[in-house]
Structures are given as structure tokens and as C-alpha cells.
Amino acid sequence: MSGTNLAQILEARARDRGRTVGLHGEDGRSWTFEQIDLIAGGVAKALEAEGVGAGDRVAFYLTNGPEIVFFLFGAWKLGAVPVTISSLYNVSELAESVAKTDPKLLLVDARGTDALGDVDGTKVTIRSVGPPTAPGASTDGVRPLQWGEEARVDAVEVPADGESCILFTGGTTGRPKAVSVTHGGTLDSLRRLARVSTGSKEQGTATPTAKPNLIALPLFHSGGQHSLLFAYFVGRGAVVWERFGVDRLADLTDRFAFDNLFLLPTMVYDIVHAKRDLPFTGVKHILVAGQAISWTVRRAFELRYGIPILVNYGSTESGHIAGWNSKDMKAGLWKPGSAGRIYPGVELEIRDEDGNTLPPGSEGEIVVRSELTKGYVDDAEASSALVRDGWVHTGDIGRVDEDGVLWLSGRKRDMIKCGGFQVWPEEIEDVLREHELVRDIRVFGGPDDRLGEIPVALVVRADGPVSDDELADALVAFARERLAHFKAPRRVEFVPELERSATGKVSRASVPDREGGSHT
A Pfam family this protein belongs to (predicted)? Predict the structure, then answer.
């Protein structure tokens, strides 16, 4: 493939395997790569008729499904920039996202029209994208986009640093930020992952008979988009569903016989706690990313199914940085508890608070040279802190050992300062998850007059013979047996469930203000 436009990935597949099915819906519909390219061309024509051109932003507020694939590639063919807004956002979050990113056009489906009253004040042009309708028809007062025609449209050339998409961060540590990513940076990230996964950075290496990949994460999420692009980059088809569910996953695995899966830790958690066994006979490995997976959940899954879980470390802003693959496992290189080997081609440094590069084994902020992101479109101050001289400051704390393996300690902003000591919530969470009565947990720093902050544990407990007060004391003792005294939680509170972001991550954005709980 020549050029850097992401739409050229699809166009390459339409040329080399046009009759191969490249997209499946969970409802039984399917499209070949050639059909996808032609429908995307029709979308490009429809967007062009609305005045959209290269560099213009087009916001999507759409229920996850295969149609979004057509809209993504249709926009990219024009050099336009999709702004993928979570379909889980409420009306105020939609209005805020539109105001932040200033799109020329907003595409909604039937469920999205309910939110339009709050968006009208932004003066953005709105079009509905339900099933193609007759010209001039309207849905709930919103004129439809006439996207049903097929057309052969070649992708325009775009610069490597041209804006390809605006994605919203998961918002686990604050309000979601609008991240601008580039065509060239995304392609570099895909090549890097392909080289690690398949041994080649060239496109179309999978055989036309290869099993399709399940796009388990929504397409408004960076993980979902990268999964889709990666499948097409290596030459596999894609299965797109509305949302994750254990029964849905079982049905689709029965139908398509997936040989690998890319899941969030919360999905693995639900699979582990499901009463039914899923038909994973042909699955060779599970790739997990998005946040750390607990040892308890990982061990339970691997013992139940005999399938290894591989990890991938990266972010919307930095791309793929480190991980383990099946070749590493077979070669005996895997180091339990690590984030993985730093991928070939990744320039990574560990730096102290003054920006000095630290030697192997020293702990500091993980900084990566990357052309993936142009920064945050809605926060100039955060952008300048994120990208400095071409280096992305991840905000993650970790170290690199002598073998080039990356180890994570936690998020810089999540660190708890207890009596002058640094405490990482993830370390406490990993320990307490090993207790048989802990179903889920989140640790945060609570204010303390003497120590500044103390670790506080929010626990979703399992049923058991002990009271909450007895279990709180037992959990503190359990932690003190396994951790330094200052790291153990000083307060334990029980909740029915933990707040999660739209992508399923445990939210660290808000600090509960509670008077209750057990103190020690």
C-alpha cells in the first residue's frame, strides 16, 4: 500500500480479496471487502454532498454495529475526520463532545434523535443514518443522509501527520479528553503490532480462509477501531456486534469459531463468573488490554479453559508499546506480572520528575516517542504536558529491566502519598483480589490529618458467613501479611458495585465522600 490514508487499507483488501467476506453483523448479514469499499464510497459521496471535504470533522453518535465501518471508511476516503462519540453518553455528554470538537456534521441514528434538543445550540448540521430512505424524507424531524448508493471512490492523499480521527479517552481518572490521532501514526502502530503478531509488517498476510476477528470493543473506542483496522491490515474479516454479553459471545463463537479474542479485563471477569462454559475449543489465546487484569481473574480463566492470556500495554495517545505474544510464551520469555517486552521499533524512556532519563531498573514515568497523537483538541495545557518534543508522557509509572521487559507500578495521578511514602492503588487491589470474599475492588487515597492520605478500599464482597465489620478487619490483616504496613488499607467500605466508565474500566474519576466504613 502506498500513501498514508487509512481508507487505503480497505481498498487494498478490495483488490486482493474482494470476494472474501470482510464484515459480519451479529444478525446474520455480511458483506465482502469489495461491497464494503463500494458502500463506503457511497458514504463518501453522501458526505461530500453535505459539503464535507478533507480536514472536516464528522461526529458519529451511533449505536455500535457494522454500519459504522462504512461511515469510518467513507469519511477517511474524503480525508475527513471521524469524531467517534460514545453511544453510551447521555444528552449533556453528547452536547459537550460536540462543543469540544466543532464538527461540520453530526450523524445520529434513531436512538440519537432523542438527544438533539441539547445539541441544537451548537449549530452543527445533523443527519440521521438509519436505513436508506427516499430523498427528502425525514426521521423525527432530522433529514437523513442519502448513503445507500454504491460508488467507486479512491481515497485522497493525506499527509502522515494529518488528523485521522478524534477519540475520547476512557475517563477513568477525570473527564474524557478528545484525542487527535494521525493517519501515519496509526499505520505505524498497526505495522508494529503486525510484526509482533505475524512476523511481518506487510499487509494482507492472512490467508483468505482465515477466521474473522471479533471486534469486541465498540468502534467509538480506540481499542475497537484498532481491532478493526488490524484485522483488515493483516487480511482478516471482522464481526461487529452491538455490545458484549456472555451469551452473545458464546453464540458468535459457535458460529464463527474464533481462533483468538481481544477482550477487556471486565469481559474476562464476566466470563470467569458465568455459570456456563463457553465454546472456546479453537481459541489459541486471549489478548487483554485497556487496564491491568487481576491475577485472581487471570488464573481462574486459564485454569478453567486452558487458554493463555496475553497482555498488551498501550493507550489511545501512545499506541501499542509492549506485550507478550505466543512466541514469547513458547520460548519461555514470559515474566509473570509484567506489562510485556517493549515492541521492536518503540523508543521508550523512563524519566524522573525533572525529565532526566533513568537507567534500567529505576522507576519513573514512562515516556514514548510517537507520532500517533496531535494532542488533545479541547485542552491546550494538557496537550502541551502530554506531547513534548515528539515524546508522549503517558502518566504511567514503571521500570524497564535488563531484558527490555516493562513493569508497571501505577498511574502518576493515582499515587497515594501516605506519611511521605508512595502507595500505588493497583498493588493493593491485586493483593486483596486474592481474598476469597472479594469480588471486585477499587483503592483510592482518602484525606487524613496526620498522614496526608490513607489508602481506602471500596469492596464488592461475595456472600459469606462473616459480617461486614469482621470482613473489613480480615481484609486489613490479609493486606498487612502481604504488603508493607503503610500500604495496607486504613479503611474498608462495602458497595454493591463499582462505578465504571463507558468502556467498562473501573472509574477513578470521582472520590467517594463517605462517613461510613470500617477504620483501622
Answer: AMP-binding_C
How does pLDDT run across 222-243, given as a tens digit for each residue? Answer: 889 999 999 999 999 999 999 9
Long-range CB pairs of 337-341, under 8 A, 24+ apart, other chains included: 337/295, 337/407, 338/405, 338/406, 338/407, 339/311, 339/313, 339/398, 339/405, 339/406, 339/407, 339/408, 340/311, 340/312, 340/313, 340/405, 340/406, 341/403, 341/404, 341/405, 341/406
* Partner residues linked to 331 by β-bridges: none
DSSP letter assigned to residue 219 = T
Domain that holds residue 102: 7-182
Residues 6 or more apart in contact with residue 395 via CB below 8 angstroms: 365, 411, 412, 413
Q: From the CA atom positions of the chain, what is the Rg in Å?
A: 23
| Alpha carbons 193 and 482: distance in angstroms, whole number | 36
Single out the residue of 315, 63, 342 nearest to residue 168, CA to CA: 315
Specify the higher pLDDT residue, 211 or 140.
211
79-124 pLDDT tens trace: 999 999 988 777 877 888 899 999 999 999 976 565 565 565 557 8
Does pLDDT of 142 surpass 60?
yes
Contact 292, 260 (CB under 8 A): no
Does 172 have pLDDT greater than 50? no
- So what's the pLDDT on residue 457? 95
- Does residue 496 share a domain with residue 407? no
Q: Where do the H-state alpha helices sit in 343-496?
A: 380-386, 425-432, 468-482
Model confidence pTM above 0.85: no
CATH of the domain at 487: 3.30.300.30
**How many domains would you assign to the chain?**
3
Residues 344 and 431 reside in one and the same domain = no
- We report the CATH number of the domain holding residue 348 as 2.30.38.10
Q: Which residues neighbour 422 within 8 Å (Cβ) at sequence distance 6 or greater? A: 415, 416
Asked whether the beta carbons of 373 and 345 are under 8 A apart, the reply is no
